[in-house]
Q: What sequence folds into this?
Protein backbone atom coordinates (compact mmCIF):
# COMPACT_ATOMS: atom_id res chain seq x y z
CA UNK A 1 0.00 0.00 0.00
CA UNK A 2 1.16 3.50 -0.74
CA UNK A 3 -0.11 6.83 0.48
CA UNK A 4 0.87 10.33 -0.42
CA UNK A 5 3.08 11.81 2.24
CA UNK A 6 5.44 14.76 2.26
CA UNK A 7 9.10 13.72 2.01
CA UNK A 8 9.95 15.91 5.01
CA UNK A 9 7.56 13.84 7.11
CA UNK A 10 9.15 10.60 5.90
CA UNK A 11 12.62 11.89 6.81
CA UNK A 12 11.43 13.11 10.20
CA UNK A 13 9.73 9.79 11.05
CA UNK A 14 12.82 7.87 9.93
CA UNK A 15 15.06 9.93 12.22
CA UNK A 16 12.59 9.58 15.09
CA UNK A 17 12.53 5.82 14.56
CA UNK A 18 16.33 5.67 14.69
CA UNK A 19 16.32 7.80 17.83
CA UNK A 20 13.77 5.52 19.51
CA UNK A 21 15.76 2.40 18.61
CA UNK A 22 19.03 3.95 19.85
CA UNK A 23 17.31 4.83 23.11
CA UNK A 24 16.60 1.10 23.49
CA UNK A 25 12.88 1.62 23.34
CA UNK A 26 11.54 -1.92 23.07
CA UNK A 27 8.33 -0.68 21.45
CA UNK A 28 10.10 0.73 18.37
CA UNK A 29 12.73 -1.93 17.78
CA UNK A 30 11.92 -4.24 14.87
CA UNK A 31 8.62 -2.51 14.10
CA UNK A 32 7.44 -0.67 11.04
CA UNK A 33 5.28 2.42 11.25
CA UNK A 34 2.94 3.98 8.72
CA UNK A 35 2.96 7.76 8.69
CA UNK A 36 0.70 10.35 7.12
CA UNK A 37 0.57 14.08 6.61
CA UNK A 38 -1.35 16.21 9.06
CA UNK A 39 -4.85 17.00 7.82
CA UNK A 40 -6.82 15.46 5.00
CA UNK A 41 -5.14 13.57 2.19
CA UNK A 42 -4.95 15.48 -1.11
CA UNK A 43 -7.18 14.34 -3.93
CA UNK A 44 -6.32 14.10 -7.62
CA UNK A 45 -8.29 17.34 -8.07
CA UNK A 46 -5.87 19.03 -5.65
CA UNK A 47 -2.93 17.78 -7.72
CA UNK A 48 -4.53 19.01 -10.95
CA UNK A 49 -5.24 22.38 -9.33
CA UNK A 50 -1.57 22.77 -8.31
CA UNK A 51 -0.52 21.91 -11.87
CA UNK A 52 -2.95 24.47 -13.29
CA UNK A 53 -2.15 27.31 -10.88
CA UNK A 54 1.62 26.81 -10.61
CA UNK A 55 2.48 25.66 -14.12
CA UNK A 56 -0.45 26.56 -16.35
CA UNK A 57 -1.06 22.87 -17.16
CA UNK A 58 -4.68 21.99 -17.77
CA UNK A 59 -5.53 18.34 -17.14
CA UNK A 60 -8.43 16.91 -19.11
CA UNK A 61 -10.42 14.68 -16.83
CA UNK A 62 -12.32 11.86 -18.46
CA UNK A 63 -15.35 10.30 -16.82
CA UNK A 64 -14.22 7.16 -14.96
CA UNK A 65 -16.97 5.07 -16.55
CA UNK A 66 -15.65 5.93 -20.03
CA UNK A 67 -12.10 4.94 -19.06
CA UNK A 68 -13.38 1.69 -17.53
CA UNK A 69 -15.38 0.91 -20.70
CA UNK A 70 -12.26 1.48 -22.83
CA UNK A 71 -10.28 -0.78 -20.47
CA UNK A 72 -12.84 -3.58 -20.85
CA UNK A 73 -12.80 -3.18 -24.65
CA UNK A 74 -9.00 -3.43 -24.71
CA UNK A 75 -9.10 -6.48 -22.45
CA UNK A 76 -11.68 -8.15 -24.72
CA UNK A 77 -9.47 -7.42 -27.74
CA UNK A 78 -6.40 -8.90 -26.01
CA UNK A 79 -8.36 -12.03 -25.01
CA UNK A 80 -9.63 -12.38 -28.56
CA UNK A 81 -6.07 -12.27 -29.91
CA UNK A 82 -4.95 -14.84 -27.33
CA UNK A 83 -7.83 -17.19 -28.12
CA UNK A 84 -7.54 -16.98 -31.90
CA UNK A 85 -3.84 -16.95 -32.79
CA UNK A 86 -4.65 -16.76 -36.50
CA UNK A 87 -5.74 -13.15 -36.12
CA UNK A 88 -2.09 -12.13 -35.84
CA UNK A 89 -1.52 -13.51 -39.35
CA UNK A 90 -4.30 -11.23 -40.57
CA UNK A 91 -2.47 -8.18 -39.24
CA UNK A 92 -4.10 -7.78 -35.84
CA UNK A 93 -1.44 -6.76 -33.32
CA UNK A 94 -1.38 -6.60 -29.56
CA UNK A 95 -2.04 -3.24 -27.98
CA UNK A 96 1.25 -1.46 -27.31
CA UNK A 97 2.40 1.61 -25.44
CA UNK A 98 0.57 3.18 -22.51
CA UNK A 99 -2.75 1.61 -23.57
CA UNK A 100 -1.30 -1.85 -22.94
CA UNK A 101 -1.50 -1.32 -19.18
CA UNK A 102 -5.04 0.07 -19.28
CA UNK A 103 -6.89 -2.91 -17.83
CA UNK A 104 -9.98 -3.11 -15.63
CA UNK A 105 -7.94 -4.54 -12.76
CA UNK A 106 -5.81 -1.39 -12.43
CA UNK A 107 -8.85 0.86 -12.15
CA UNK A 108 -9.45 0.10 -8.48
CA UNK A 109 -5.94 0.93 -7.37
CA UNK A 110 -5.55 4.08 -9.42
CA UNK A 111 -8.92 5.71 -8.83
CA UNK A 112 -9.56 5.07 -5.14
CA UNK A 113 -7.86 6.93 -2.33
CA UNK A 114 -6.39 4.71 0.33
CA UNK A 115 -5.99 6.38 3.66
CA UNK A 116 -3.20 5.68 6.09
CA UNK A 117 -3.61 5.55 9.85
CA UNK A 118 -0.51 6.73 11.68
CA UNK A 119 -1.83 6.48 15.24
CA UNK A 120 0.87 4.04 16.42
CA UNK A 121 3.65 6.34 15.16
CA UNK A 122 2.06 9.33 16.93
CA UNK A 123 2.26 7.61 20.33
CA UNK A 124 5.11 8.69 22.57
CA UNK A 125 8.30 6.63 22.62
CA UNK A 126 7.42 5.42 26.11
CA UNK A 127 4.11 4.08 24.74
CA UNK A 128 5.86 2.22 21.91
CA UNK A 129 5.53 4.88 19.22
CA UNK A 130 7.81 7.50 17.70
CA UNK A 131 6.28 10.72 18.97
CA UNK A 132 5.71 11.60 15.29
CA UNK A 133 4.00 14.85 14.30
CA UNK A 134 3.99 15.82 10.62
CA UNK A 135 5.61 19.11 9.64
CA UNK A 136 4.23 19.57 6.12
CA UNK A 137 1.54 18.32 3.79
CA UNK A 138 1.72 16.63 0.42
CA UNK A 139 0.12 19.72 -1.08
CA UNK A 140 3.04 21.79 0.29
CA UNK A 141 5.43 19.36 -1.40
CA UNK A 142 3.58 19.54 -4.72
CA UNK A 143 3.65 23.34 -4.70
CA UNK A 144 7.38 23.32 -3.79
CA UNK A 145 8.10 20.95 -6.68
CA UNK A 146 6.15 23.16 -9.09
CA UNK A 147 8.03 26.26 -7.92
CA UNK A 148 11.39 24.48 -8.26
CA UNK A 149 10.43 23.29 -11.75
CA UNK A 150 9.55 26.84 -12.75
CA UNK A 151 12.85 28.16 -11.38
CA UNK A 152 14.92 25.45 -13.12
CA UNK A 153 13.20 25.88 -16.47
CA UNK A 154 12.95 29.68 -16.33
CA UNK A 155 9.16 29.59 -16.56
CA UNK A 156 7.04 32.21 -14.88
CA UNK A 157 4.34 30.72 -12.69
CA UNK A 158 0.83 31.62 -13.75
CA UNK A 159 0.33 33.86 -10.71
CA UNK A 160 3.19 36.12 -11.91
CA UNK A 161 2.04 36.52 -15.51
A:
Amino acid sequence: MQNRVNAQNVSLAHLQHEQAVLANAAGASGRTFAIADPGAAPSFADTYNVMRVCNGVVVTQLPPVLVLAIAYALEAYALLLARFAGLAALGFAEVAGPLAILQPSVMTTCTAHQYCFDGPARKSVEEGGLGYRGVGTSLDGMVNQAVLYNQETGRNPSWET
